[in-house]
């Protein structure tokens, strides 16, 4: 361990993505990671929307 480890700001383990966040301070690697994380979140959100649509359609078929 170096004497200067305390001087280096540590990245949070699970950094949250904030919409509208200043991207200028991020490295190319961090930007790529951000894109991957956002794509995963988009896919997760789309799956949830599809599930809700399926549930709604099933409920509509019962109550019509």
Description:
This protein has 64 residues and is an all-alpha fold. The protein has a domain at 26-64. The protein is 56% helix and 0% strand. The N and C termini lie far apart (68 Å).
Record keyword descriptors for this entry.
64 residues, mainly alpha, 56% helix, 0% strand, rod-shaped
Explain the layout of strands and helices.
Elements: H1 28-63
Question: What's this entry about, in short?
Answer:
The chain has 64 residues and is mainly alpha-helical.
Shape: rod-shaped
What is the terminal-to-terminal distance?
68 Å
C-alpha-based Rg, rounded? 20 Å
Structural class: mainly alpha
Question: What ranges have pLDDT less than 50 throughout 5 or more consecutive residues?
Answer: none
What is the total tally of β strands? 0
Helix-strand pattern? H
Largest sheet: none
Query: Count of helices?
Result: 1
Estimated helix fraction: 55-70%
In what range is the share of β-strand residues? under 5%
Give average pLDDT, whole number. 86
